[in-house]
Amino acid sequence: MFKANVYVTLRTGVLDPQGKAVRESLLSLGYDETQEVRIGKFIELTLDVDKYEVAKERVREMCEKLLVNTVIEDYRFELKEVTL
Amino acid sequence: MFKANVYVTLRTGVLDPQGKAVRESLLSLGYDETQEVRIGKFIELTLDVDKYEVAKERVREMCEKLLVNTVIEDYRFELKEVTL
């Protein structure tokens, strides 16, 4: 069994209106030190797979096919073996 | 200048309908090994602050006041000093 932590972020240069709105809220709350805010997704997957290499390839495929819009988003992930 | 990576996840026991929908999509695509999917947020903040301790306290406050709904969400963050 493996657990994957997938981090999905907007590519550099892609506008992030949600991040902009959060930044403006932080500024209005007095957090004047806030320079930039970018908001992405953090996806935790639990996979019933025995081999690290298989898990790695399957997560890569899931990202490319469903989890990530690779036109505007980047991703990276970590895998760790877990026992449930 | 500090960069903070904030990871916001649903608390254990809180239902995650978005994660459930993604899991069902993965299963329908043939990824039968998918056991659980939980979806959270990944927030990158850039802060114009000089001291590590100040940055840490400010990010904690931002999380408690705006970024995280602490009733249903947990968070953790990492800080690193950056030069722009």
From TrEMBL, chains A, B:
Q: What subunit structure does UniProt give?
A: Part of the FGAM synthase complex composed of 1 PurL, 1 PurQ and 2 PurS subunits.
Instruction: Quote the gene name from the UniProt entry.
Output: purS
Enzyme Commission numbers on file: 6.3.5.3
Reactions catalysed, as given in the entry: N(2)-formyl-N(1)-(5-phospho-beta-D-ribosyl)glycinamide + L-glutamine + ATP + H2O = 2-formamido-N(1)-(5-O-phospho-beta-D-ribosyl)acetamidine + L-glutamate + ADP + phosphate + H(+)
Organism classification: Bacteria, Bacillati, Bacillota, Bacilli, Bacillales
For this UniProt entry, the molecular function terms from Gene Ontology, in alphabetical order, are: ATP binding; phosphoribosylformylglycinamidine synthase activity
Localized where? Cytoplasm
Q: What does this protein do?
A: Part of the phosphoribosylformylglycinamidine synthase complex involved in the purines biosynthetic pathway. Catalyzes the ATP-dependent conversion of formylglycinamide ribonucleotide (FGAR) and glutamine to yield formylglycinamidine ribonucleotide (FGAM) and glutamate. The FGAM synthase complex is composed of three subunits. PurQ produces an ammonia molecule by converting glutamine to glutamate. PurL transfers the ammonia molecule to FGAR to form FGAM in an ATP-dependent manner.
Q: Which domain of life is it from?
A: Bacteria
- Name this protein carries in UniProt: Phosphoribosylformylglycinamidine synthase subunit PurS
Task: Check the record and name the SUPFAM superfamilies matching this protein.
Answer: PurS-like
What PANTHER family does the annotation carry?
A: PHOSPHORIBOSYLFORMYLGLYCINAMIDINE SYNTHASE SUBUNIT PURS
The pathway is: Purine metabolism; IMP biosynthesis via de novo pathway; 5-amino-1-(5-phospho-D-ribosyl)imidazole from N(2)-formyl-N(1)-(5-phospho-D-ribosyl)glycinamide: step 1/2
- EC class name: ligase
Q: Which Pfam families match?
A: PurS
Indicate the principal place this protein occupies in or around the cell.
Answer: cytoplasm
